[in-house]
Design a protein that fits this description.
It is elongated, with a radius of gyration of 24 Å. 36% of the residues lie in helices and 26% in strands. The chain folds into two domains: 4-89 and 137-225, Rossmann fold (3-Layer(aba) Sandwich); 231-293, Alpha-Beta Plaits. The protein has eleven helices and 14 strands. The protein starts with a strand and ends in a 10-residue tail after the last helix. The structure holds adenosine-5'-triphosphate and magnesium ion. Adenosine-5'-triphosphate is lined by residues 15, 20, 38, 40-46, 85, 194.
Length: 314
């Protein structure tokens, strides 16, 4: 068995003199969830398009499901399913008709086709709306239908390009459950997202994409370890107390606007007690104490020098 579902090396893509993918290496283990994380314009969709044979790379090589992207394009296509960033749902058709159309396109006729459609409607909790036009579906339902359509052919590798962008927290959670269930069946997931929490929740491995380059790769925990450590935040009720506390605590950085003091520390109860004791010894008392452990937002900032929301034009 092939234990590597996707292996890409040095993928490059440019439009004119604008480099979009600047040498991308990716390895995804079979049956795992891989997340490509990056802000708008980072090159996520371009990467998906290249790996799904929709777009030809200018350089580099890749094997998907054990097949070469360029010389075995058909075999790659047979093994994969793609749910694009923008839904492929036909609004005029009902949910059921959309799925049937997919089955027909893949020559799943008669009983076999019907069975797949029924199974998917049930699995995605779309039975009640199966006979309603997709135009009447909510964003979450459309996303589910779109993914269901991708699964008609039972692909071994599924590409999901921003599957939860624009969904409310509840629909997002439903989508996460569905993705997890897919891997439980052995499906490999390649997922792009701009939500750090999503990558953190789902992915076995995460690659951070920034302006066409992978700037970091690893498990969520590994990435979190690459940022400056955790800290304790003390909030005071007035500026004099804040200033006094800042003077007696080494390495502390005050924020006069929020009256918060940031103190390096791991938040262990021992260090926390020592911190509060020291304040008390100077007749100072924090109004609120909170412990901040680094999240993936911090990772992005630490690795790229800019926040996830500020995709810079090149
Ligand atoms: N056909 C094209 N011609 C020229 N430039 C393109 C083309 N397709 C994409 N680009 C550019 O490539 C860059 C990466 O685009 P891409 O769609 O891969 O980003 P993305 O990470 O998917 O962003 P988003 O989160 O907004 O979907 C962008 O700057 C985009 O303008
Ligand atoms: Mg995109």
């Amino acid at each position: 068995m092939n234990s590597t579902a996707i292996a890409a090396s040095g993928l490059r893509k440019a439009y004119g003199d604008k480099t979009i993918l600047d040498g991308i290496d990716i390895t995804v283990g079979t049956g795992t969830i891989f997340s490509l994380l990056g802000p708008n314009g980072a090159g996520k969709t371009t990467t998906v398009n290249v790996l799904t044979t929709l777009l030809k790379a200018d350089g580099g090589t890749a094997r998907v499901a054990g097949h070469d992207l360029v010389t075995e394009t058909e075999a790659v296509r047979k093994a994969i399913g793609v749910t694009g960033q923008f839904a492929a749902v036909d609004d005029l058709l009902t949910g059921e008709e959309n799925l049937k159309l997919m089955a027909d396109l893949h020559r799943l006729r008669g009983k076999a086709g019907k069975r797949v459609v029924t199974e998917l409607l049930e699995r995605f909790d779309l039975v009640e709306s199966a006979r309603k036009p997709a135009a009447s579906y909510s964003g979450g339902m459309r996303r589910k239908l779109d993914l269901a359509m991708t699964l008609v052919t039972k692909p071994e590798i599924v590409f999901l390009d921003e599957p939860t962008t624009g969904l409310d927290p509840r629909s997002r959670r439903t989508m996460w459950e569905i993705v997890r269930e897919l891997t439980a069946d052995g499906v490999t997931i390649f997922l792009t997202t701009q939500y750090l929490e999503e990558a953190d929740q789902l992915a076995d491995r995460i690659a951070v994409l920034d302006q066409g380059r992978i700037v970091a790769e690893g498990t969520a925990d590994e990435l979190k370890r690459r940022v400056p450590g955790s800290h304790v935040q003390l909030r005071f009720t007035d500026a004099t107390e804040l200033a006094a506390a800042a003077r007696i605590l080494p390495g502390a950085t005050p924020d006069d606007e929020t009256l918060a003091l940031r103190v390096p520390g791991d938040g262990s109860s021992k260090s926390l007690r020592a911190l509060l004791d020291r304040l008390a010894a100077h007749s100072l008392e924090a109004d609120q104490v909170s412990i901040h452990t680094p999240d993936l937002d911090d990772v992005f900032l630490a690795l790229t020098g800019h926040a996830t929301t500020e995709a810079e034009p090149r």
